[in-house]
Specification:
Strand 1 (about 15-20), helix 2 and strand 2 form a beta-alpha-beta unit. The model has no long low-confidence stretch (mean pLDDT about 95). The chain has three domains: about 5-140 and about 310-325, Rossmann fold; about 145-170 and about 210-305, no CATH class; about 335-415, Type Iii Antifreeze Protein Isoform Hplc 12. The protein starts with a helix and ends in a 9-residue tail after the last helix. The chain is globular, with a radius of gyration of 21 Å. The protein has helices spanning about 5-10, 25-30, 50-55, 60-65, 75-80, 95-105, 115-130, 145-155, 180-185, 190-195, 200-205, 210-225, 280-290, 315-325, 365-375, 410-415; strands at about 15-20, 40-45, 70, 85-90, 110, 135-140, 160-170, 250-255, 270-275, 300-305, 335-340, 350-355, 360-365, 380-385, 400. It contains 16 helices and 15 strands.
Length: about 425
């Protein structure tokens, strides 16, 4: 609360550098003209002309576009002295790590829209930012930061958190989905998807369980909530049933579909939730007195938000970092990991095509389990060659692939692993 007032009292705008003018970045840019406390000083994108066109498409005036620096050189933008907060919105995990580390070295706050990078090495990035005296933050508007907010609300009020997470459309068969089959599951034709500018591999990562795993790993790492020992269960559950959800202090994703494919009543497909417990008989009695919906015991209730507005809400993270020095969620430990898992039998010599591709999907596992089996993180499962056969449904390990050990992202991730599961970031 009070971020708008603080921004107005400051007397000068928070100057932002955006890396990546895709969908999330464009939604943020759409809000800038109506956000008096924020100014985008520069935009770095592999295609600067495409970024300019994105600004026009979301309603920027030619004067605003002319006053903004556009570049394809992100490191040069990060060196600019007039930028206070960097928004990393590329979606590419290795690039995200490199950009975040450079921003931290330059003394700039970093808002990490790139949750893939956060899950790959967020604990190390947060540790590095803390030591440098800058903020490393999850992006408000995306579901992980909103879930972290609900968890913090419950804990600050003195409630015990039993479960937290989000909703999605899920059936077990989706784990095998590929970019070639994804539109059928969404009820779209290839032509409709093409006209809508929809990327099949990106949308497939939403469907095959990978994005859900990545987002829940980010939440577990930021809140300390446990990770289901054998991955997300995706139980069908509506908002009226949340208080009956039986979890014990862990993250979980709810399906908007029953296993027979029928719709769940009052589904939470686009939303987020927290389930919490009254700490005393008196608090439970207050629940009843004030009309709080509970489970049959009267002690467990839930709070939910039915939707999230993606980049339209990103200002909250930017202003929080610049004006309060506070993150809207950030890793506190390495609790959850997303391990590459075979969608089909993989043969030696095949080249993996990463998140949302045709070869593998990402499975959420406790970090200790991932470390024990030597799991290959999904963020590094692109353009790597399989060294030996991997059966369908099996987690892919470091030993199963040929990987460039000189790669900076690989080395940074492996360095983070030496901290161990649950290592404190501070």
């Amino acid at each position: 609360m009070n971020l708008h007032r603080l921004a107005m009292q400051r007397g000068r705008k928070v100057r932002v550098g955006l890396i990546g003018a895709g969908k999330f970045g464009s939604m943020f840019l759409a809000q800038v003209p109506s956000s008096p406390g924020i100014e985008v000083a520069a935009i770095a994108d592999l295609a600067p002309d495409r970024a300019r066109e994105a600004c026009r498409r979301v309603g920027w005036s030619e004067e605003r576009i002319a006053a903004t620096r556009f570049t394809d050189d992100a490191p040069a933008m990060l060196r600019a002295g007039d930028i206070e907060v960097v928004v990393e919105a590329t979606g590419h995990a290795p690039a995200g790590i490199a950009h975040a580390r450079r921003a931290i070295r330059e003394g700039k706050h970093i808002v990490m829209v790139n949750v893939e990078a956060d899950v790959l090495a967020g604990a190390a990035l947060a540790r590095e930012a803390s030591r440098a005296g800058v903020v490393y933050s999850l992006a408000y508007g995306d579901q992980p930061a909103l879930i972290c907010e609900l968890v913090d609300w419950a804990r600050a009020c003195g409630f015990r958190v039993l479960a937290a997470g989000k909703g999605t459309k899920y059936l077990p068969e989706y784990h095998a989905s590929t970019p070639a089959t994804v539109w059928g599951y969404y009820g779209l034709t290839e032509e409709q998807a093409r006209i809508g500018g929809m990327n099949p591999q990106m949308f497939n990562s939403f469907l095959d369980g990978t994005k859900s795993a990545i987002e829940m790993a980010a939440v577990a790492n930021a809140t300390g909530l446990a990770v289901p020992p054998d991955g997300l269960g995706f139980p069908p559950c509506g908002t009226h049933e949340l208080a009956e959800l039986r979890c014990s202090g862990q993250v979980e994703v709810l399906s908007s579909l029953h296993r027979d494919g029928t719709d769940v009543t009052n589904d939470l497909r686009w939303g987020v939730y927290v389930v919490f417990e009254a700490p005393s008989d008196y608090a439970a009695r207050c629940f009843k007195e004030y009309g709080v919906v509970t489970d049959t015991s009267g002690r467990v209730s839930a709070l939910y938000r039915p939707f999230h507005l993606i980049g339209l809400e990103l200002n909250i993270s930017i202003l929080s970092a610049a004006l309060r020095g506070e993150a809207t969620g950030a890793p506190t430990a390495f609790k959850g990991d997303v391990v590459t898992t075979a969608k089909r039998d993989l043969r030696a010599g095949e080249v993996l095509d990463g998140e949302g591709g045709s070869c593998v999907w990402g499975k959420l596992l406790p970090a200790r389990t991932s470390l024990k089996i030597g799991g290959l993180p999904i963020g590094l499962a692109n353009h790597v060659t399989v060294r030996r056969d991997v059966p369908l449904g099996t987690c892919v390990t470091w030993d199963d692939v040929r990987i460039d050990e000189a790669d900076d992202a690989y080395r940074y991730r492996r360095e983070m692993e030496t901290l161990g599961e649950g290592a404190d970031v501070g």
